[in-house]
Amino acid sequence: MGKRQVRIFKKDILNNAMELIFQPSVQLVQRNKVVVQGKLLSLNDRHAELRDSSKNIHTVPLEQVEEIVFDREAAW
């Protein structure tokens, strides 16, 4: 099965919070184009918290987030 990237832009992040929390891995793109990849632990109207592959916790203010990207399996 193939994969498709899903991009959730800043204005839609809170509306898709539950879907993002259940993803095994997301890429959080910040406004300064720095990308943090990991498991989204929590998300609220002030910040997003991720755990990266080194088990480090990153807390990013939501106003610094440009978009969140994750992979979804496609049927083709």
Written description of the protein model:
The protein is 7% helix and 55% strand. With 76 residues, the chain is mainly β. A hairpin with a 4-residue loop joins strand 2 and strand 3 (35-43). The longest helix is centred in the N-terminal third of the chain and has 5 residues, at 17-21. The mean pLDDT is 94.
Protein topology:
Blueprint: E1 2-9, H1 17-21, E2 26-30, E3 35-43, E4 47-51, E5 57-61, E6 65-74
Antiparallel strand pairs: 1-6, 2-3, 2-6, 3-4, 4-5
Question: Could you give the distance between the termini?
Answer: 6 Å
Helix content: under 10%
Strand content: over 45%
> How many DSSP helices?
1
Q: What is the CATH-assigned architecture?
A: Roll
* Number of domain modules: 1
In CATH, what is the class? Mainly Beta
Q: Widest sheet: strand order?
A: 1-6-2-3-4-5
Instruction: Report the count of strand segments.
Output: 6
Structural class comes to mainly beta
Q: What string, H for helix and E for strand, traces the elements in order?
A: EHEEEEE
* Average pLDDT figure: 94
Shape: globular
What is the fold named in CATH at topology level? SH3 type barrels
**Unreliable runs:** none
Query: Nearest-angstrom radius of gyration?
Result: 12 Å
Let me know the largest β-sheet: 6 strands, antiparallel
